[in-house]
Amino acid sequence: MKPALIGTACALALVAAGAASQAAAQDPNYARNLASACFTCHGTDGRSVGGVPPALAGKDKNELLQILKAFKSGTRPATLMHQQAKGYSDQQLEAIAGYFAVAKPGPASAAPAARVNF
Fold this sequence. Notes:
The protein is mainly α. The protein has helices at 3-26, 30-35, 39-42, 61-73, 81-85, 90-102. Helices cover 55% and strands 0% of the residues. The termini are far apart.
């Protein structure tokens, strides 16, 4: 790649990163929106059913962040989490860890009863 193109690509990346951090500052639901991908396995707001997979609500932010970064780098073995973590920037992983750190731990919510309409 030519030096001018490399410089342009770097500048565009910095602009995109700045736009993403601005969006995060303006959207009060930013961290929850990122963390919502985790809800499928770890339960709504990180309160899993029966502890499998582990509940995330109320865990230490720094501990969660280190675990997420280990999944992302591949240094922590996983069947699925390494693929999930690679889809986020370090700043996004920090937002996710922060979201779960302040979420109140407790039992998972019961699923709503099925409704049958005939």
